[in-house]
Amino acid sequence: MTSPTNRRVVSFHYTLRDPSGRVLDTSAGGEPITYLEGAGQIIDGLDVRLRETVAGAKTRVQVPAAEAYGMHDPNQVRKVKRKQLPVDGELKLGEQFQAGSDRGAPIVTVVAIDGDDVTLDANHPLAGVDLTFEVEVLVARAATTEEMEHGHAHGADGREHCH
Ligand code: ZN
């Protein structure tokens, strides 16, 4: 993704829905999301679609799967034996765990259980899902020089310190 030259910091509330209208996630009742444009702090497909928004705007943004969490890759789905899994106790459909002990090992989801055979999906849970964000923009301001150097936002007012 190309970074805009006059980058902004944007703070927004959102509700994320799948194509059936089911709410997948929302910031309502919590902290808004604050990000620096083009810094990879939110998914690219949303970042580029919010470039024209202004503070106070309420908008609906549709992000196709390919520009959100990617398409679902069937090669990331595989069948393993239950005893190979690092899970104690009962295994449930939809359960997620890290496949391996490395930091950054993929999170896999149990998508089928057939006796000793367990089918795991290493795709992101939202892979292949077209996303609709209802967005309310709270703040849209020019990024500070320090934020651009750091590559992230320092809070909605630009005064938050980072570590
Ligand atoms: Zn910083």
Describe it.
- This protein is mainly beta.
- The chain has 2 domains: 4-69 and 127-150, Roll (Chitinase A, domain 3); 74-121, Thrombin, subunit H, CATH 2.40.10.330.
- It has 2 helices and 9 strands.
- The chain has helices at 44-49, 145-150, and strands at residues 8-17, 23-26, 33-36, 58-63, 77-81, 96-98, 107-114, 117-121, 131-142.
- Strands 1, 2, 3, 4 and 9 form a 5-stranded antiparallel sheet that branches.
- A hairpin with a 2-residue loop joins strand 7 (107-114) and strand 8.
- The longest helix has 6 residues, at 44-49.
- 18% of the residues are buried.
Keywords, separated by commas or semicolons:
single chain, 163 residues, mainly beta, Chitinase A, domain 3, Thrombin, subunit H, 2 domains, 5-stranded antiparallel beta sheet, 4-stranded antiparallel beta sheet, 2 helices, 9 strands, binds zinc ion
Short description:
The protein is mainly beta and 163 residues long. Helix content is 7%, strand content 35%. Strands 1, 2, 3, 4 and 9 form a five-stranded antiparallel sheet that branches.
Q: Averaging pLDDT over every residue, what do you get?
A: 92
Distance between the termini: 26 Å
**What is the CATH architecture descriptor of the largest domain?**
Roll
- How many separate domains? 2
Counting DSSP E segments of at least 2 residues, the number of strands comes to 9
| CATH topological fold name of the largest domain | Chitinase A, domain 3
Order of helices and strands: EEEHEEEEEEH
Q: Given the C-alpha coordinates, what overall shape results? A: elongated
Report the helical percentage: under 10%
Oligomerization state: single chain
Total helix count?
2
Structural class: mainly beta
Radius of gyration, CA atoms, in whole angstroms: 19 Å
Q: Note poorly predicted spans.
A: none
Strand content: 25-35%
Q: Ions, cofactors, ligands: which are bound? A: zinc ion
In CATH's first tier, which class of the largest domain applies? Answer: Alpha Beta
Major sheet details: 5 strands, antiparallel
